[in-house]
Write a structure and sequence with these properties.
The structure is a homotetramer.
Chain A (H helix, E strand, L loop, with lengths): L4 H26 L2 H10 L4 E2 L7 E2 L2 E2 L9 H15 L4 E3 L10 H10 L3 E2 L2 E2 L23 H21 L3 E5 L3 E2 L7 H17 L6 E5 L9 E2 L4 H11 L3 E6 L9 H10 L3 E6 L16 H18 L8 E4 L8 H21 L2 H9 L3 H13 L3 H11 L5 H7 L2 H9 L9
Parallel strand pairs in A: 1-4, 4-5, 6-7, 7-9, 9-11, 11-12, 12-13
Antiparallel strand pairs in A: 2-3, 8-10
Helix pairs in contact in A: 1-13, 2-13, 3-10, 5-6, 8-9, 9-10, 10-12, 11-12
Chain lengths: ~425, ~425, ~425, ~425
């Protein structure tokens, strides 16, 4: 299913008058709409292939309907999102869930939808049928060299798939760790993991990056071998220039100041990218911005400030991806909400009066610094985000159109009630 | 498989000399071994049927081998545990995983193993094949009366199964809640849940108890409709005299003082029982006592003090059950460790010099109160626990015997490598 | 110092054109400005006397200048706030810091500033010079009856002061608890505290309320005797109809769902009032809305829904108070920011489309429910709040006027650099 | 006051028979008492000068009596502790609280008590009378170069005092950070702090170490500029070979796995030392081992394993210090409990069967690894610790002797009821 441009046009026509009024008001108020619009239009958020189906917990999974069962259908789904918001122009694949049997055809299909291939993801946290060795006790950290070798080779295979598709990065998230005191020798586990990563690193093409993702807990419940940004940074520094830390917003201990972590990693030249989501308790994988949108804004505030200070490109120098689980919402609606939340936070952070903030910081004028941030945050920037979509050919109200256009019903019609996506 | 008594006897013979030396020393040191032994011997911990197989997380499950695939085999497994430690004399069933098609035969089988039927557990957190209504958005809280009715009827069915088996209680754990702000009207969800519970309560036999279990989060990640002890107590009080709160050690927010909760619930006459496990981050469902054994001791310290103050029977007036998930250990070994940890904490708490503690508390002698608790806690009470097992006919070193006796290998021989238990 | 009305008028004149444009736009967009304005205008937030000076931590205190050193000066400060925002029309006193030696004169002074006397606060967490008994080991929970008696009498004295001033409620916050396992018998401490509260309750005038405040930790670091909402509710229920639970936003364990607690307390008819602040780690006492403004909105969303459902008056049926510590901001600026944040959240919650939300909840349309909440939250309601101030005679931009009017400098001129307020 | 050796001898004589019986039993059981004893005897824990008086919270301080008011009296107090346990042979000073006006005399006094001077501590978290610049907005991070210069010079002054006393290390704990979003530019604050530390580092004698302590929160409640081990390690690595990370057990986010952090820092060659205490919620500064003694054991388990693997000396290659606050216990009793808890954990960790553990880890035998750890942990090693004291000339039961000997009463007699120590 490809969304007809006329449908979008028709939708926009109905919404246009109200939008124009709102956008004009906002433009007048802010006086900098044009510059922000250009940045918003350049900003794309990758969609993970595994977020297109219903997620679940260990207690159960309540499947949706019309989910994409093949890689082609997943690309189609991301194509739909991108047609609606023009900001989801990349897909991130997970091997072995998304092995492209015909890479050329897959690339062509993606191109038809205007999509690129973002970071490739390996999977050594689950056993696959007919796999020689089990990852029950870890993969790259495993005490048994044969298991490590299997996991290393899997990662190299993932790189190779990515090369064929035009991807430029590998994200390594390890569930490796321990669930009980005494289970693991932390030092040796670190060392074995490092050596395994070094072998993978050696297989990385010259223009690729490797992202070392960290996570505080789950599925191991005592220690994680890449458990926080400090550990990830140790690995990235020991690996070399192509290695970076990847921040998943849900992978922290309670109350962590993620925006400070982001600022410091940027400062060290080692921030690689993001997995966006939101959470209240742990790696809850909720819709971006659904629990604490101010924190999201504060993170973007650091990103904009830091990227500019380093002379980096907002749109291209970091990897931007959603990583959420859609247990009780339609995955496509949820992803539209997530992308919008990211764009809202990005637009708000672009509105921050940097010069005034810097001056307030220099004067330790704490109340004024807060006023400056909240002036940007409390501004209703949704018309800016909508205008960016409009200018790119997307829909003014993506979710509204998704519903009015009965997109899910059409997908169910094509794929059936029982079509289930791979993933968690 | 039934463990031959001679095997146990042979094992004990080898261990006896060393044990006697340790036990005699401890008896001399404490001077109150006999009284504690009687209490330890009377104390039984129920084993949940779903803890006999390998658990998993949403990221995967690494199955073991020789797991019990039928209710009969689960009873057999608990029978093995009980033969080894003589302290696991009850099994707790989960419907629909454990529907007894022939209750009489199941009762007989259990009796052969010396087992009773502890609390029955209902399951409205997962959909079953051919179920009319989905629990995707809750069960007893659901906005749709038909869904609530289905869930109520399921609970009544569970009670009926329990009546046939001689159980005397129903544990209701609800995953009901919400994952996003706005999803639920908290007040109405509470009210609907209360009305549903009232219908279940009305179906409860006169000599039964209903345990309302609470949980802070997971699988819902924004709110849980029975989210903490305060909410559970509200429900229990509104239901009536047969309703109690059940405490699962892993179901709290970070840093919660569980022992205080326990003491207050006891004081209100509304503490119903326990689900024992341990955890570091959330409902990690780790082996009891594997992360913070001192907390376990402090909980037992409140239990012993409070039960005695209320004139209640340690062994029979509360429900004692393990609720853990065995992702990377042999479930039977894990359960042996858990039961031992509970017995150790219980024995330590029995050793506390109550009169001295009361006096220290009365004098606000904080340092002395700590000395008194730690005097009991630091005492190595394992010989007491082993002696209790010995006197009851169990093994001095259950895990050692489990391993030397190659019990798991025998079970695999009987059931096969691929035999998988129901559960999470 | 009393702020000249002409100064405010002059300030508003300069800001008016821009404000009118923003307010008109918002009125058109929302279509319900008038009704919301009336509610905003009726809504008053009490200022605690102890928040008018610089706060500190155990590591130190960095005093400001020109702080109010007397009760009269504190009333003057709140009068200044109220003149600026017309929403701070009440002051909450803390005894013994604010003993009114001449109640009639104090009442008159407050009336001149348009202020009422909100809840009275007792202090049994610190020892005062010449106090017979120490609260080192608690007050209402103390094992020594003489200490409890002293604390009870102090509370009754606080009530008497309040009666003289026209206050109608007493807030009891207890630091009582324990810092070490074993220090306290939880059950007995609960019982002693209850009996002490009952004596205080008996001294309460017929038209008074008593608020039982809870706190998870600090200054006791193992247990707090009124530690969570469940415990507070137990006390309130046992005390009687005049007893209520008071919620301080910073007094919870990490990740607590405060909005659900609020909804349930309202449902039980036992929510008494609020201490507003914000926090990231514990009882950080930061400016309201400075860390997680969405949570504040969600709390108000429950309040508006619940108060309306119960037929209660938003402005008068609950106690609204700020309780924050101003370590590094000017206290008056900080309080202006806090009041504004509360009004913004209140206005946003009034904007929520209740009928649509109820329908979405009924349909389990989770994505739509989120859209409805965020539609209200993302709306920039500041012009509504400013308009409410304008209509009441306050300043369009209180902080701006505070700074341009050099109010602090004037206060320093009057009181001196070294004038220090009582408080933490 | 110096404790007469005869008093200790008399005390030991009464306790000896029972002790011998216990020690002999333990020796037989473990078979390795002699080797452990030697290590225990070599192991000394430094006492911080500020822990000798009653601590407090921001809510108040309940002073004790007979506290040491001078540096000489503080040395006397540590001397008393050391006389009792022979394991507190060092004192750690805090400047400006403990400025030695006559270093030679102070060294002599310390030597009389058998004490060395452990790490020196600077204080840039509080303003001192007559200080030119305030630390309200930080010290080494401050935006104003003059403030940074003042803080740097203070640290250099502290080094100089330390040189005079024979200390060999400087601990820098910074309260620097921010309490509100926007207040600080994280990158610049890091950079300024680094440059300040570099100036201090340049002033460090060749044989000195500098310890960079981290803390997650408090007294700043939004960000800390040295907030976690990762940040501390960044600073230490950028500073050079003499810079190390210092771990304070209470300075972490909830649920942090401290033992893993310790193992990794040791692995990086950057673990400098410890501040021991215990906590439930934050930096509660409770008695060591009073809340979670198993965690303390697990930390020592990593230390012993890691130090041995690195060929380091347990007693001398890391800095061992208590850092606790004694709000409601007699500080000297509390410190005796803390030292004992550390020794117990150390002894338990020395009992761990390393070869068996390594084998179990190699085999992923998780249950066995747990058994091995708990075998050591559950052993009652107190007789070993007591024997170490006995052999060194200390008391078998230090607290008992402290009480029976009426030491506090004697100190009050000497110093008076109102004598108050400096500190928090």
């Amino acid at each position: 299913m490809i969304l007809d441009k006329n449908i979008i046009a028709g939708h926009n026509e109905k919404e246009l008058a109200k939008h124009q009024q709102q956008f004009n008001f906002l433009s007048e108020q802010t006086g900098q709409a044009a510059a922000i619009l250009e940045k918003l239009k350049a900003f794309q958020v990758a969609i993970p292939s595994w977020a297109l189906g219903t997620g679940g917990t260990r207690f159960g999974r309540f499947a949706g309907a019309g989910e994409p069962a093949t890689l082609e259908q997943k690309i189609e789904d991301v194509g739909l999102l991108h047609a609606l918001n023009q900001s989801s122009g990349a897909i991130s694949l997970h091997i072995p869930w998304d092995i492209p049997t015909n890479a050329t055809a897959i690339k062509e299909l993606a191109a038809q939808h205007g999509l690129q291939f973002d970071a490739m993801n390996s999977n050594t946290f689950q056993d696959q049928p007919n796999q020689a060795h089990s990852y029950k006790f870890g993969s790259l950290q495993h005490t048994d060299k044969a298991v490590r070798k299997q996991a290393i080779e899997h990662n190299i295979e993932v790189i190779n798939h990515g090369v064929n598709l035009g991807s430029k990065s590998l994200t390594v998230w390890l569930s490796d760790g321990s669930s009980f005191p005494g289970q693991l020798n932390f030092r040796k586990a670190f060392q074995r993991t490092l050596e395994s990563l070094q072998e993978i690193y050696a297989a990385l093409p010259a223009d690729w990056k490797i992202f070392v993702e960290y996570k505080a807990f789950e599925p191991n419940f005592y220690s994680m071998t890449v458990g926080d940004w400090g550990q990830s940074l140790l690995f990235a520094n020991k690996l070399g220039d192509k290695a970076y830390t990847l921040v998943d917003l849900g992978h922290h201990l309670p109350n962590a100041n993620i925006e400070q972590i982001v600022a410091l990693l940027l400062n060290e030249g080692k921030l690689g990218g993001f997995h966006f989501n939101d959470s209240k308790y742990g790696d809850d994988d909720l819709t971006v911005g659904s629990i604490n949108p101010y924190q999201l804004f504060l993170i973007f505030n650091e990103l904009v400030e830091g990227l500019d200070a380093k002379g980096l490109n907002h749109a291209t120098d970091l990897g931007w991806m959603i990583d959420a689980s859609h247990n009780i919402k339609d995955p496509l609606e949820d992803l539209l909400q997530s992308v919008e939340a990211i764009q809202v936070a990005y637009a708000q952070s672009l509105l921050v009066d940097r010069a005034a903030l810097e001056a307030a910081q220099g004067n330790n004028d704490v109340a004024l610094a807060q006023e400056i941030l909240q002036q940007a945050y409390r501004t209703d920037v949704r018309p800016l985000v909508a205008e960016a979509r409009l200018q790119l050919g997307g829909a003014l109200s993506p979710i509204k159109l998704f519903r009015e256009g009965k997109v899910r019903a059409a997908l169910i019609g094509e794929r059936g009630e029982k079509s289930v996506a791979t993933g968690l």
